C-alpha cells in the first residue's frame, strides 16, 4: 500500500492538515525579514568627508565650507569619498572655477559625515563601511548567505537522519540566539560571525518547513499547500518594509525581526513529525499514533487500529529481494549514484542557482529603479502575491517544468530590458522592475514545490539540502556582483540577466511531476 492511499483513508486535506499548514506558515514569515534585511541593515545614506574646523572657516556657512573643501560631481552634488588637500577659497567667488594647480584631491582623512534624515544608524554608519570599505558592507550579506549555504548541507542531512520537527525546532531556537547576539554586536567582526551563524540556523527553517507540510497532504492539495506556504514569504516581505520604516536604528531592527522566531518555535508544539519520514525509517508505531490523531481530527474514526497491516507495507523495500529496508542510511552522494537521479540533481542545482542569483540580485537593488526604498520593498512584496496566484493555476494547467523554465527566462529578460531603458524613464523602469520581480518570485515559488516532488522520501531532505546549498551560493554571490559597476555600470544587470536565461533553459531538461505520486524510494525514481 502506498502512503498516498493511507492519506486518503485518514483525510488527505482536512482540519488536521489545514492546522499544521498555517502553523508552518509562521516560520516562513520570519525568513524574508532576515534574508532581505541587508537592504536596511547595511543601507548607505548620502555622506561626505568630515572637514576639521579651522579658524578661517569661522565666518563661513556649512555650505560654503563644503564648497571649498570637497570636489563636486557634474550634477552639483559633493563627492562622497574625496576632499581637497587645501581649502579652495577662490571657489567662493565662482564655484565653476577649476581648483588651483597646486591642489590635489585626496581620500577622506577625518572620517565621514552622514545624512541621518532617513536612518538613525546602520552598520555602514556605525563602522564607516563606505568608499574603500564598501566591499565589507556588501560582504555582510555574503557572510549571511555563506551561513545559509552551510546550514543547507547540515540541516538537509540532519533532518533526514533525525527527523523534520526536531531539526526545525533546533533551527528556530538557534535563530533566536544568534539573531539577538547580532543585535548586540560591538564590532564588525562580531556582526559578521553572528550573522553567518544566523544564516546557518535559518537555513534549517527554509529547508524543512515546506517538505514537512507537503508530506502530510495528498496529491490534489500539494500545489495549494506549497503556494500557501510561499505566500507567507511575501507577507514577511511586506512586514519587513513596515518594520524597517518604523525602526530606523539597526540594533533594534535586528531585535524586531528576530523576536517572531520565538513565537514560531512555541507554535511548533502542535505540529507532528512527518509520518512519511517515520515509516521510511521503520518507526511504524510513532507514525500510527500521528495518523490516528490526524484521522480523529479529520472525522475519519473508522481508520484501522492495527498499524502492522498497512503501515509496514509503506516501508521502502529492496528491489532485488523485496525485503524491507527500515533505517537505511543515505547521504548526499546518493543523489549522484544513479543516472536519472544524477541528471535531476545536476539540473535542479543549476535552476536553483539561477533562481536565487536573479531573485536576490533584484531584491537587493531597491534604490536602482527610482522609487523610495521602503516603497520599493513594499511593492516588491505586494506583487509577489498575484504572481503566486497565477503560478497556482499555471503549475496545475501547464505543468511544473514549463512554468519553472519560462518564469526564470522572463525574469532575465526583464532585467535585461532595464539595461536598455534610459535612466530618466523612471516610471517605465519601475514597471519593468516590478514585472521582473513578479516573474522572479514565480520562479522561486515553483522551484520549492517542484524540487520537493522530484526527490524520493528517503532522500527528499538531502535533495532539498543540496539544491538549497547551490541556491545560497547564488544568494552569496548576488550582492558582490554589484561591485562590478566600477568596471561597467550595467555589468551587474547584464550578469543577472544572462544567468537567469541560461538556467531557465536548463529547467526544460527536468521531468514533469504534475499529478505524479511522490516517490518513496530511489527505485521509484529510476
Automatic annotation (TrEMBL):
* Taxonomy, superkingdom: Eukaryota
Query: Chief subcellular site?
Result: membrane
What is the membrane topology noted in the UniProt record heading this document?
Answer: Multi-pass membrane protein
GO MF assignments: organic anion transmembrane transporter activity; prostaglandin transmembrane transporter activity
Its recorded reaction(s) are: prostaglandin E2(out) = prostaglandin E2(in); GMP(in) = GMP(out); orotate(out) + L-glutamate(in) = orotate(in) + L-glutamate(out); glutarate(in) = glutarate(out)
Name where it's found. Apical cell membrane; Basolateral cell membrane
The text of the family note is: Belongs to the major facilitator (TC 2.A.1) superfamily. Organic cation transporter (TC 2.A.1.19) family.
Q: What name does the UniProt record give this protein? A: Solute carrier family 22 member 7
Q: Which gene encodes it?
A: Slc22a7
